TrEMBL record:
<protein>
    <submittedName>
        <fullName>PATHOGENESIS-RELATED FAMILY PROTEIN</fullName>
    </submittedName>
</protein>
<dbReference type="InterPro" id="IPR053218">
    <property type="entry name" value="Pathogen-related_defense"/>
</dbReference>
<dbReference type="InterPro" id="IPR032710">
    <property type="entry name" value="NTF2-like_dom_sf"/>
</dbReference>
Length: 249
């Protein structure tokens, strides 16, 4: 007989697999007019992942859950269309800072939410307070035109409080904030805690990581000339618009 945790894991696997592969109803409002496609980042994920979790395992469930949540934040414009979170309770807490609500994250964008900093501005590698949803996504999708893949490395506890370790990576092949691309892989590791309700919707997500691991790669090269940067930005942005969200497979 299956344990209560095993039954919950199976239910969550069914829910998140449905969100990832079956789409949503016709009333969903998409930021770019239609559901995203993930061909480039799918390939990046398949070629670069270090773990291949069994279907229906807790690790696969957690991986799909976070990817689905980030897909909705990046591509849906109304909280009422979200299937992965409890909008009345949801909070995102990054590196111990004050939690952000679903509405706040929709306004900021996932990059700005993850990269907000309490450091004085002169010490900030990236000034999230000066970026919009659109400008932040343009900056990172231009720098990482093949996408920004994400995988679960370990899961330490099952629902309703799930703790896990993750890896985030991409290839720096376009300019970032005036810095020339290196063509090298950039990545960082982190830890997370995901709390879900009885309907398996996220109520709270805590993420802990070192942003310096990411920016060390993105700011490695010297600044390029404004005219060169602008030309490369325009070229890469057209291609980047077709890619999916940073986490999604």
């Amino acid at each position: 007989m299956a344990t209560a945790e095993e039954a919950l894991i199976k239910k969550s696997a069914d829910i998140y697999r449905s969100i990832l592969h079956d789409g949503t109803d016709n009333t969903t409002q998409w930021r770019h007019g239609a559901p995203p496609t993930f061909d480039s980042v799918n390939q990046l994920f398949e070629e670069g992942r270090t773990k291949e979790w069994p279907k229906g395992s807790l690790e696969e469930v957690v991986q799909n859950a976070i990817k689905s949540w980030d897909m909705e934040i990046s591509h849906k414009i109304r909280l009422q269309d979200f299937k992965t979170i409890n909008p009345d309770k949801f909070k995102l807490i990054v590196n111990g800072r004050k939690g952000l609500s679903g509405e706040e994250i929709l306004e900021l964008g996932s990059y700005n939410a993850l990269l907000k900093s309490s450091l004085p501005k002169e010490f900030q590698c990236y000034k999230a307070d000066e970026e919009t949803f659109e400008s932040s996504h343009d900056a990172f999708l231009s720098a990482l035109p093949r996408g920004f893949a994400w995988e679960v490395l370990s899961v330490y506890s099952g629902p309703p409080v799930i703790s896990f370790k993750f890896r985030h990576w991409g290839f720096f092949e376009g300019p970032f904030k005036g810095h020339a691309p290196t063509g090298e892989k950039v990545e960082f590791l982190g830890l997370g805690v995901l709390q879900v309700d009885e309907s398996l919707r996220a109520e709270e997500v805590e993420i802990y990581y070192d942003p310096a691991e990411l920016f060390g790669g993105l700011l490695k090269e010297p600044l390029i000339s404004p005219s060169q940067s602008e030309s490369e930005d325009n070229t890469v942005n057209v291609a980047a618009a077709a890619h999916g969200c940073p986490f999604s497979k």
